[in-house]
Amino acid sequence: MKISYALLPDHPLRDSLASIRLADELGFHGCYAADETWHKDLWQLFAVAAGQTSRIRLGPSVSPVTLREPSLIAQSLATLDELSDGRAEGVLSSGNFGLLAQYGIDWAKDRPLTRVKEALHVVRTLLDEGAITHRGDFYTYDGLFTFARPVQDRVPLLLGAMRGPKSFQAAGELSDGVHHALSYTRAAYEYAVTHLRTGAERAGRDWRTLDIGAWVVFATGPDSAAAKEAARSMVGIYASSMPAEQLRRNGVEPEELAPVIDAIAAGDLARGIELTTPDIADRLSIAGTPEECLAKVQRELAPAGVNHLICAITDRALVNAFTGRDLPAAADVDTQLRLIADHLMPALA
């Protein structure tokens, strides 16, 4: 199982660059970041990181095709690929629907999966051929070309999926894999992998060659209680973007989480955290000592066919930035990266 580091670009940029360099030295497969207005710009961060690293792969997980025009995603990926000497990859989706709502976009009425599939075709074509003529439902180009050319023969393009089943099937049929965010049970990943496999087999592809990534809220450290408290501080913020079907696949009824989501939507983060019980937080995160985190990965994720663990590391600084809470006993990002490398990487290799 590959292991990658997912960051929210909200730390001081010098700290983020230092953590990316450390992840590169420790042998992490990739570093991903959310391409969202809420955070600092990942493309500029990764452009600098590309010159300071040698092995780690870099790219968005996810880039929202509803907000970022796919020809510009292709241009950015090709440029990052050249800067990194062939280490770029991208994960596409319709976007975070909480963010889309702040743009006044009703994503559900806009045939989101159809848009994502068309955008995938656009990005793939521009990366592979450098030019495109296309008339679709969402995007139209007449001889559009770019001098931004990747170093890799084929830049990996994946889809981000949470609800399913058609999004997982599309990932298996059309892309290089899937990053499935915010699931923590074997049932949830068996659902995702089953539909990914259906799509792959429909296209005559071997589903086992695809990147099957689990993007998870993750917090570890020598102090189990502190790590779990860090995760609990962030679970409600993340879970507010989970569809009802996905919550149920993770053993959580939407009604359980409704008060938390209502409090967060009203801007009362303190109340939202208070209402997030330790039990809910445990179900919707991977947190605790490295041994506890490893046990959950081995019990819930690996048996379902997941071959890529993507750790969205939650630390003291991130909790403080989002919620104003200070958790001095929570391990920092670099400590967690080292613990993952020491304890999870050898066991999951």
Describe the protein.
The protein is built from 15 helices and eleven strands. It is an alpha/beta fold and 349 residues long. A hairpin with a 4-residue loop joins β5 (131-135) and β6. α3 (70-83) packs across α5. The protein is globular and about 55 Å long.
Record keyword descriptors for this entry.
349 residues; alpha/beta; 8-stranded parallel barrel; 18% strand
Number of strands: 11
Quick one: biggest sheet?
A: 8 strands, parallel, barrel
Summed over residues and divided by their number, the pLDDT gives a mean of 95
What is the helix tally?
A: 15
Rg over CA atoms, rounded to whole Å, is: 19 Å
Order of helices and strands: EHEHEHEHHEEEHEHEHHHHHEHEHH
Helix/strand/pairing category: alpha/beta
**Strand arrangement in the largest pleated sheet:** 1-2-3-4-7-8-9-11
Low-confidence stretches: none
Specify the overall morphology: globular
- What share of the residues lie within helices? 40-55%
Distance between the termini: 6 Å
How would you describe the oligomerization state of the chains in this entry?
Answer: single chain
Portion in strands: 15-25%
